[in-house]
Design a protein that fits this description.
Order of helices and strands of chain B: EEEEEEEEEE
Low-confidence stretches of chain B: none
Largest interface: A-B, 24 and 24 residues
Largest sheet of chain B: 6 strands, mixed
Helix content of chain A: under 10%
Distance between the termini of chain B: 37 Å
Oligomer: heterodimer
Distance between the termini of chain A: 36 Å
Structural class of chain B: mainly beta
Order of helices and strands of chain A: EEEEEEEEEEE
Mean pLDDT of chain B: 90
Strand content of chain A: over 45%
Radius of gyration of chain A: 13 Å
Shape of chain B: globular
Shape of chain A: globular
Chain lengths: 112, 115
Amino acid sequence: QKEVEQNSGPLSVPEGAIASLNCTYSDRGSQSFFWYRQYSGKSPELIMFIYSNGDKEDGRFTAQLNKASQYVSLLIRDSQPSDSATYLCAVKGMDSSYKLIFGSGTRLLVRP
Amino acid sequence: GAGVSQSPSNKVTEKGKDVELRCDPISGHTALYWYRQSLGQGLEFLIYFQGNSAPDKSGLPSDRFSAERTGGSVSTLTIQRTQQEDSAVYLCASSARRDRNQPQHFGDGTRLSIL
């Protein structure tokens, strides 16, 4: 079992819709969770991070964390074609190394 | 302010040659990370530096890979006797250490192609 799992997609949604991206992780002791956006040929760009159970909203983005279910999601409201990219989920555990464990990413396609 | 800077942005070399990749982290960031991303894949952790502490080298794939960080700032990743499977984008990230939950900020990467 991979440590961080994401559906590779592509997830295709029409412009203006809500895109829902999901991520599960295996280490129950994981403490911090990050969503990165990566355009083709570019480096990952931090979108949001969340540490506590529940929802965290930032503009059109909402991160949701459920530690009991070992599940974190990213909702994008009013999706725009410019949101089309690969979204990487990353998890940081309790160990002292601070390294992030990345999922392989979900490709999102927003249709005009 | 300046972000994480990596050089070169692209590197093409012949199999068997050594390569050096450079990373200049965000000013004031004490933590520095190297990752590797193969085509269509997620990021693979390679090595982590934190201040003057011993680095976490647990992700280095073989003894051909090494990295150093001089003066707690600039880092170089060296790959000796390159192989075709080393072809990938090598990404560097940095973060502030004051809070262990500080997010990592990435440079634009070095695209390495081994012929």
